[in-house]
């Protein structure tokens, strides 16, 4: 499904979020900067937007690995990297890998980020335990993900998800079913408190979260 929309994925994200995704990524980058990582894994990297934002925004210039299960998404990411003139992108490399069975050694990363990808894992607990395995002791996981908006906004939010998002997403990408899936996956995904409990169950400590955009998105963190 993601392979079929890969070539229009970035455009769809800008339109469907009304550009708010740019601010969400900036907030993630500021949080990552607090850990001054030397080695960073961006899991479910997709077309690489988060990896590129991290390379631009972090003064430490960490080595960044962008990993995704979907090969066509990685093709888009690599094309963008090769076309860029920004030398900071030289610190990024992309590789294919399964979030449920990461082809990476134990304790290899200072920080792992995953943005709007944990929701798509077939087994979230297994994915979280794999992430904790590849983090060094005390390393940080940062999860940017859709959440439950505040009660006042909820009716409008779910109206948008159910009725407008598939129409707009289908128009932009030619694949409305992908955006019906997006709606379904958001509706069944736990809210902030539920995901915090899943992080704790996977062995993370110092778990916390903050709401963004009226609660429609949340930024979670935990330490390995």
Write up what this structure looks like.
The protein has a single domain, classed as 3-Layer(aba) Sandwich (Rossmann fold), CATH 3.40.50. Helices cover 46% and strands 22% of the residues. It contains nine helices and seven strands, in the order αααβαβαββαβαααββ. A seven-stranded mixed sheet has the order 3-2-1-4-5-7-6, with helices on both faces. Helix 2 runs antiparallel to helix 7, helix 3 crosses helix 4 and helix 7 packs antiparallel against helix 8. The chain is globular and about 45 Å long. The protein starts with a helix and ends with a strand. The mean pLDDT is 86.
Give a brief rundown of this model.
With 224 residues, the chain is α/β, with parallel strands linked by helices.
User: End-to-end distance, in Å?
Assistant: 32 Å
Mind telling me which CATH architecture this is?
3-Layer(aba) Sandwich
What is the average per-residue confidence, as pLDDT, rounded to a whole number?
A: 86
Strand order of the largest sheet: 3-2-1-4-5-7-6
Low-confidence stretches: none
Question: What is the chain-wise order of helices and strands?
Answer: HHHEHEHEEHEHHHEE
Structure annotation, total helices = 9
Overall number of domains: 1
What share of the residues does DSSP label as strand, in percent? Answer: 15-25%
């Amino acid at each position: 499904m993601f392979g079929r929309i890969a070539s229009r994925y970035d455009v769809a994200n800008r339109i469907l979020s009304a550009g708010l995704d740019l601010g969400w990524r900036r907030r993630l980058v500021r949080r990552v900067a607090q850990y001054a990582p030397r080695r960073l894994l961006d899991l479910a990297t997709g077309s690489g937007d988060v990896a590129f934002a991290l390379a631009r925004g972090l003064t430490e210039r960490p080595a960044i690995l962008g990993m995704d299960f979907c090969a066509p998404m990685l093709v888009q990411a690599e094309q963008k990297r090769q076309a860029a003139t920004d030398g900071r992108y030289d610190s990024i490399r992309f590789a294919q890998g399964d979030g449920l069975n990461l082809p990476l050694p134990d304790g290899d990363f200072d920080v792992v980020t995953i943005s709007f990808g944990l929701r798509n894992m077939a087994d979230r607990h297994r994915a979280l335990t794999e992430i904790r395995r590849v983090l060094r002791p005390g390393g940080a996981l940062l999860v940017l993900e859709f959440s439950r908006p505040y009660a006042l906004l909820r009716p409008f939010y779910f109206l948008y998800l159910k009725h407008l998002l598939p129409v707009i997403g289908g128009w932009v990408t030619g694949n409305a079913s992908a955006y019906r899936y997006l709606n379904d996956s958001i509706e069944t995904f736990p809210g902030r408190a539920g995901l915090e409990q899943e992080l704790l169950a996977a062995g993370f400590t110092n778990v916390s979260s903050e709401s963004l955009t009226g609660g429609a998105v949340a930024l979670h963190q935990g330490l390995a």
